[in-house]
Each structure stands twice: as structure tokens, then as C-alpha cells.
């Protein structure tokens, strides 16, 4: 997680609450193990489990799998004191709930970079785990467009989960930008900063956004950048590059900040792949290689070591998978090895 466990659901407001991450650890009998871990950053899988643990205490008050489709005012004597909230339940039934108070917290919509259209082989990273093939795609590849934390995590996940796949990270600059999580800069996330920002003039808001963009926007944790570079370099040493970073050879061309994944794992490609049809390999659709250096023109091509099929990596126990992955990658099928 890119946030301290102390910024859980409650601690900053009510440190003694029974819904804190520490109470969760105590309940799961892992408090001492976590302390020995000496980290402020739980894994996404563990934080997911914490949120489910907290949510379970309210299961009788929350209706999941339903969509609010309309909100209408209830007028009485010329005033509006109540609202009717129309809800479409999971089975399609419409029900109306009358309320005095309504909180709107609908979240954000995923956005693809300009020019990309979602289809069965191109999707936004929020759909990643549901869209990945369940079988072991050892000879196919994928492109991951974007240079933010999600893109870097997706690139690392694909590279680790599919030991035979070529994974291309595509973005419009020369390298991932490190996230600034230094102590002073982190004050932009303090509760009081919300009030400062809210009441600031537009010009100050713009300046604050620009100053502190690298705390969160299109940036990547430094340890993840280091890990990707380590893998990339190691493969160069071994002469079998399959983690490829496609950056501009001229000036940066893309302003994409969202993460899109393009994969050749369409049903047709999977069939072709199983049939050993090399024409469907992603490598055939990569940009042409750079022309040979003038000094080498007319001379035989440099020999690169033949690609060898690698044995699949060690199987990992389920506790290494993020919570969502457990739903999609069932035991006995493809295993994932994400960084967290
Ligand atoms: C890949 C990824 C990684 C992230 N990692 C981190 C991290 O490490 N640290 C961090 O601090 N933040 C992280 N974030 C950001 C964080 O997840 C969001 O800031 C946070 O979830 C926003 O919370 P929210 O409640 O506003 O919206 P959401 O979490 O999006 O919740 C909105 C909910 O409303 C529901 N909804 C919308 N419309 C309706 C409707 N009409 N009827 C019923 N329900 C509706 C949606 O289905 C959704 O469940 C990450 C985000 C992503 C995508």
C-alpha cells in the first residue's frame, strides 16, 4: 500500500477505535508478527482483508450489489426535508428508500488514454485481474501503457506472473518518475491541508497542485522503479530481454497518465497460441527494430543468443496473492507474484 497503516479507516480521527488496523491485527493474532515486520506499509492483500473485516461488522446495514439510479426530492408544504433514493437491486428490482440525509461518494470513472478504445484485448488496469488469462501464457506478451504506480505495478505483475511472456512498458518519457513521499511533502495529505486547499484562491490551488504533483500523480515508488530496472538489466546481462521499456527516441510524445493494458490474449490468439501459430505473437506487431549502426551496415547481423523456453517459476502459496487475485486465479491455475 502507498499509505501508512496508521491512516486506516479510523485512527487519525479516533485512535482508540475498535475498527483500527491494529485491532484487526490483534483479532487476527498477527499483531506481534506485524510489529516484527517493521513496516508502515501493509500489503494490498492484508489491507484488503482489513477492510473486509471492518465491513463485515456492518453487513446488516449495507446493501451490496445494488445501484442508485435516481434521487428525487420529497416536497412537503413548500420545503424539501426528505429524499427518495431509487435503488436497482441485484435481481433488477427497483426499490425506493426515503431518507433525510444522503452522502454522495460515487468515486471516479476509469479513463483510457486518448486514441485507445477498450475491446477484448485492450483494457484499463482496473479490469486487469478479471481479464488476465487463467492458463499459463508462456510465449505471448503484452503492452502496458502509462508511467504511474498502477502501470509499473501491472508491468511487474505481468512480468512475474507469466515467466515466458514479453512485457513492454510504454510511456512518453525516459523513465518512471519517483514518488515524493518525504515527510514535509507528505503534509499535503494532512486533514488541515484539505481546509487550506478548499479556501485558497484558484491561483494558489494551481500552484499547490503543481508543487506537489509528484506526491501522487503519475509517479512510482522508488523501490518498484529499482526492482523493474534490476530485472531489465539482469535480462540484458543474460541476453534474453523480455521486459522491454519502450521510451521515445525523440521527444516525449504521450501525455498518457492512465494505465491501459493491451494483450494478444484474445480467444483467437489463445487458440492460435495453443496451435503454435507464431504469426500471432505480439513480437510481430512491435515497432521495427532500429536500423543497424552505419559501421555495421552490410555486415552480417549481430547474433543474439537463441531464446530458450524457461521452466515455470516456483509455485507460490495463495497468501502471496492480492485479495482480488484470489477470486480470479484459482489454486491449480496460473499463479501470480505481484510486488507488495
Ligand atoms: C489501482 C489503484 C491503486 C491504488 N492504491 C492506493 C494506495 O496504495 N493508497 C491510497 O491511499 N490510495 C490508493 N488508490 C486510490 C484509492 O483507491 C481511492 O482514492 C479511493 O478508493 C477513493 O475512495 P472513494 O470512496 O472516493 O471511491 P471508490 O473507492 O471508487 O468507491 C466508490 C464506490 O461507489 C460505488 N458507486 C458508484 N456509483 C454508484 C451508484 N450509482 N450506486 C451505487 N454505488 C455506486 C462504486 O461502485 C464504488 O464501489 C488506488 C487506486 C487504484 C485504482
Report on the structure:
The protein contains 10 helices and 8 strands. The protein folds into 4 domains: 5-56, no CATH class; 67-99; 122-178 and 218-287 and 315-328, 3-Layer(bba) Sandwich (FAD/NAD(P)-binding domain); 185-215. The chain starts with 20 loop residues before the first helix and ends in a 12-residue tail after the last helix. The chain has a 5-stranded mixed sheet. The chain has a 3-stranded antiparallel sheet with strand order 1-2-3, with no helix packed on it. By secondary structure, the chain is of the alpha/beta class. Strand 2 and strand 3 (94-99) form a beta hairpin. Bound molecules: flavin-adenine dinucleotide. Residues 1-3, 67-68, 105-107, 126, 150 line the site of flavin-adenine dinucleotide (FAD).
Brief sketch in words of this structure:
This protein has 340 residues and is α/β, with parallel strands linked by helices. The protein is 28% helix and 14% strand.
- Helix coverage percent: 25-40%
Q: Any idea what the CATH architecture of the largest domain is?
A: 3-Layer(bba) Sandwich
Cα end-to-end separation: 7 Å
Structural class: alpha/beta
CATH topology of the largest domain: FAD/NAD(P)-binding domain
Bound molecules: flavin-adenine dinucleotide
CATH class of the largest domain: Alpha Beta
Integer-rounded radius of gyration:
24 Å
The largest sheet has its strands arranged as: 4-8-5-6-7
Shape type: globular
Amino acid at each position: 500500500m502507498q499509505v501508512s497503516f496508521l491512516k486506516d479507516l479510523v485512527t487519525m480521527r479516533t485512535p482508540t477505535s475498535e475498527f483500527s488496523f491494529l485491532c484487526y491485527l490483534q483479532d487476527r493474532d498477527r499483531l506481534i508478527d506485524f510489529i516484527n515486520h517493521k513496516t508502515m506499509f501493509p500489503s494490498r492483500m492484508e489491507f484488503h482483508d482489513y477492510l473486509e473485516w471492518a465491513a463485515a461488522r456492518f453487513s446488516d446495514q449495507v446493501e451490496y450489489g445494488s445501484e442508485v439510479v435516481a434521487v428525487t426530492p420529497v416536497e412537503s408544504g413548500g420545503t424539501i426535508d426528505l429524499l427518495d433514493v431509487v435503488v436497482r437491486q441485484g435481481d433488477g428490482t427497483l426499490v425506493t428508500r426515503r431518507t433525510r440525509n444522503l452522502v454522495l461518494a460515487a468515486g471516479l470513472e476509469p479513463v483510457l488514454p486518448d486514441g485507445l478504445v477498450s475491446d477484448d484485448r485492450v483494457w484499463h488496469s482496473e479490469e486487469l485481474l478479471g481479464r488476465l488469462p487463467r492458463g499459463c501464457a508462456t510465449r505471448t506478451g503484452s503492452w502496458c501503457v502509462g508511467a504511474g504506480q498502477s502501470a509499473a505495478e501491472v508491468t511487474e505483475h505481468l512480468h512475474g506472473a507469466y515467466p515466458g511472456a514479453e512485457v513492454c512498458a510504454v510511456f512518453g518519457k525516459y523513465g518512471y518518475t519517483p514518488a515524493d513521499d518525504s515527510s514535509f511533502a507528505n503534509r499535503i495529505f494532512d486533514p488541515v491541508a484539505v481546509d487550506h486547499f478548499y479556501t485558497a484562491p484558484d491561483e494558489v490551488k494551481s500552484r499547490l497542485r503543481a508543487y506537489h504533483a509528484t506526491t501522487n500523480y503519475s509517479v512510482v515508488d522508488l523501490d518498484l522503479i529499482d526492482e523493474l530496472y534490476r530485472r531489465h538489466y539482469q535480462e540484458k546481462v543474460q541476453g534474453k530481454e523480455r521486459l522491454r521499456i519502450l521510451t521515445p527516441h525523440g521527444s516525449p510524445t504521450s501525455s498518457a497518465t492512465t494505465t491501459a493494458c493491451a494483450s494478444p490474449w484474445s480467444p483467437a490468439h489463445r487458440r492460435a497460441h495453443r496451435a503454435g501459430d507464431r504469426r500471432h505473437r505480439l513480437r510481430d506487431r512491435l515497432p521495427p527494430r532500429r536500423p543497424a549502426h552505419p559501421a555495421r551496415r552490410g555486415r552480417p547481423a549481430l547474433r543474439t543468443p537463441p531464446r530458450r523456453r524457461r521452466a515455470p517459476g516456483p509455485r507460490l502459496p495463495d497468501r502471496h496473492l492480492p485479495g482480488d487475485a484470489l477470486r480470479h486465479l484459482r489454486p491449480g491455475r496460473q499463479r501470480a507474484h505481484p510486488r507488495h
